[in-house]
Amino acid sequence: MGQYYNQPDFGTTAKGILPIDSFLPAQDLRSSCLYVGGAGDVSVIMQGVRGSNGVEPPTIANAITFKNVPAGSVLPVIIDFVASTLTTATNLVALK
Questions:
Q1: CB-based contacts of 80, cutoff 8 Å, min separation 6
Q2: For residues 89 and 35, what is the distance between their CA atoms, to the nearest angstrom?
Q3: For the chain, what are the domain ranges?
Q4: 89 torsion bin: left (phi>0), alpha (psi -120 to 50), beta (else)
Q5: How far, in Å, CA of 50 to CA of 32, rounded?
Q6: What is the DSSP-derived secondary structure letter of residue 6?
Q7: Residue 26 — φ and ψ, nearest 5°?
Q8: Mean pLDDT across the chain, nearest whole number?
Q9: Does this model's pTM top 0.70?
Q10: Per-residue b/e over 71-80, b at no fewer than 16 CB within 10 Å?
Q11: How far, rounded to the nearest angstrom, does the alpha carbon of residue 12 sit from its chain's CA centroid?
Q12: Which residues, other chains included, contact 23 with Cβ-Cβ below 8 Å and sequence gap of 6+?
């Protein structure tokens, strides 16, 4: 049987997050997936997306919204940011 800590299939860290629309590198979730505790829409910036010149942080125009995500779901995507503007889901946890 393998060890959990070195398996890419399992999250080894988790932190509760609040969506924010100022996509600064300091708020970067660094390629996390997302657990959604309370149902709703989730607006995210996918991994590696940056602003128009490819270097600056992304803007809200770079966000994609997943509609009607059920409570207790893990979104099967890798994200860097959660945007507050269109996010109605609650109890979000970033998993890495």
A1: 28, 29, 30, 31, 32, 45, 46, 47, 48, 49, 58
A2: 10
A3: 17-95
A4: beta
A5: 16
A6: G
A7: -65, -25
A8: 86
A9: yes
A10: eeeebeebbb
A11: 16
A12: 45, 57, 58, 59, 81, 83
Beta bridge partners of 73: 36
| Residue 1 scores a pLDDT above 50 | no
H-state helical runs in the chain: none
Task: Quote the tokens at residue 57.
Answer: 């942080």
5: its two tokens: 């800590």
Q: Are 58 and 45 in contact (CB under 8 A)?
A: yes
The answer to whether residues 78 and 46 touch, using CB atoms and an 8 Å cutoff, is yes
pLDDT for 67 = 98
The type of residue at 7 is Q
Q: What is the dihedral of CA 36, 88, 24, 72, to 10 degrees?
A: 0
Task: Tell me the two tokens of residue 30.
Answer: 């660094």
Tokens of residue 3, six digits: 């060890």
How far is it, in rounded angstroms, from Cα 1 to Cα 72? 28
